[in-house]
Design goal:
Elongation Factor Tu (Ef-tu), domain 3; 5 domains; single chain; Rossmann fold; alpha+beta; seven-stranded mixed sheet; globular; about 25% helix; Alpha-Beta Plaits
Amino acid sequence: MAREYKIEDYRNFGIMAHIDAGKTTTTERILYYTGKSHKIGEVHDGAATMDWMEQEQERGITITSAATTTFWKGRDGTMRRFNIIDTPGHVDFTIEVERSLRVLDGAIALLDANAGVEPQTETVWRQAEKYNVPRMIFCNKMDKTGADFYRSVEMIKTRLGAIAVVMQLPIGAETEFKGVIDLIEMNALIWRDESLGAQWDVVEIPDDMKEKAAEYREKMIEQVVDIDEEAMEAYLNGEMPDNDKIRELVRRGTIDVKFHPMFCGTAFKNKGVQPLLDAVCDYLPSPLDIPAIKGIDFKTEAEIERHPDDSEPLSMLAFKIMNDPFVGSLTFARIYSGKLEKGTSVLNTVKDKRERVGRMLQMHSNSREDIEEAFSGDIVALAGLKETTTGDTLCDPLKPVILERMEFPEPVIQIAIEPKTKGDQEKMGLALNRLAAEDPSFRVKTDEESGQTIIAGMGELHLDILVDRMRREFKVEATVGAPQVAYRETITRQHEEDYTHKKQSGGTGQFARVKIVFEPNPEGEDFKFESKIVGGAVPKEYIPGVQKGIESVLSSGPLAGFPMLGVKATLIDGAYHDVDSSVLAFEIASRACFREAAKKAGAQLLEPMMKVEVVTPEDYVGDVIGDLNSRRGQIQGQESRGIAVVINAHVPLANMFKYVDNLRSMSQGRAQYSMTFDHYSPVPSNVAQEIQAKYSGQK
């Protein structure tokens, strides 16, 4: 089977936004206009096609990135293939967003025209910067009361530090929003309400907007010629670029992430979606427009590149595992190079295991079609993989490569969980393992002393949803304990410890002496080890044993048994015995040495501090600040955003449980907040004593 669409006609993109900016609705409209959705699914009635997990339909927030393939004929008449990844906008799911950005070539950032750039917009924007993803901006909800396109443009500059190139101006706003002015063609598009937005009229720019349109077109041209010396020179000499040249420059600037073209409309009222789709064709990159993916040669560890070319060796990245009610476990993968046929055996280079691709599916939200073959640039769902987890590379066994690993954040909250009946114990274990395979930011462990199962994740909502999924998908009823904070311990001063380990009991004995300086690690890494041994006081082959010994006890600090952070250890002296010394003896010595030193080096308890942003009407500012202070919060600042006030604070996670209920009652449901992990900070001594008393008894 030959490739149906040329790779330059692929657009792999996602839609990223703050919760409630209208992402699912926009995706739905795209599916509707590209012919993939026969009845528009509304989030309001829980029927949206992309939001296909039962829970998402109930809560109206997108939790898992579903991948959808659809098609659109651009302005030039060429049919393009869109692979759209739907990403969640709630802060507890940032791992999903990172993961989908990793495999995208471009993105549309949605803004709510009333709220502009919101906290979670900033978070996902920063994640997109990290992966250098080209972005366009769609200012959505122009029909909403308080919609202000021009304020949103300004906020992109002040909040995101980004350059928006305005490509359209809105005609009217709020209930008067009728259509847009196209600043390239210099005409107006007015949508007909009766055709569900499928049809619009191209008319002359309204008289009262001609001057503004000319001013913004001039601004746009100045911004785009700035990236090209020749065009800039011609422009300064009074030559205006023609429309094709403008589009070419906008495309280049977007792909090079120099600026972001900005559009507007209202997906809910079906206005502005088709020009946005044309813009995806015109300005977002195909797999050929972005740098080739880099990887490491499995055998030589040399850096190699894989290009989006069907004739290159196969390489793909598994970016999502999903349990499908009909097919079982599905692995979503992006093919970066080569092609894949059903039934092929591939190598998972991260696990060093072979996998056979049983079925290969092209996904459309929650319907699917079996395919025999897939090509570079495709995003496919594979059934039948046993060992593969998120972030693994699958490739041609004869040309093995490891693509960049994804990094996943450490969980900040944990809760104990137990099944309601003994019969559910095994089912619960199975369910938790399946969920952990799908989501690397979710961890499961057993507390050695209490025997309880502990689950850890990125926030209360994250864990609520996982417990809920266990009930729905795996039919396991569980009782959940109170949330527990992931505390850490560190040391605050330098201490030198000399320790000798001796054991004689017939036969070969054990002997090792180590002298180690322990101090706070200024680089802030979890642990740093150095050896300054000269003259062979500790033979070279035993030094890894010293490091391993210390590392093995970092998981349990002296105060309350929490993992330790920010420790630097320098081995400065020691002694050995020709017969009785071994790596193991040095491991035991350094372990005991650190345990002793940790008690004397000013051990301190650390707690996760969250960056909290509260957006509240002015009437409640005093109450909100008073409440944050009572939670040991440190107010970092406040600013006005329209008629609301934004309060930024650092607050200990331990004091943020059930905050949402408090905030709702305090502000009569009008304030919202978002919270992300910021840093670890020392716990005040009075609070530390309570925590130690509570946990020392348990550990």
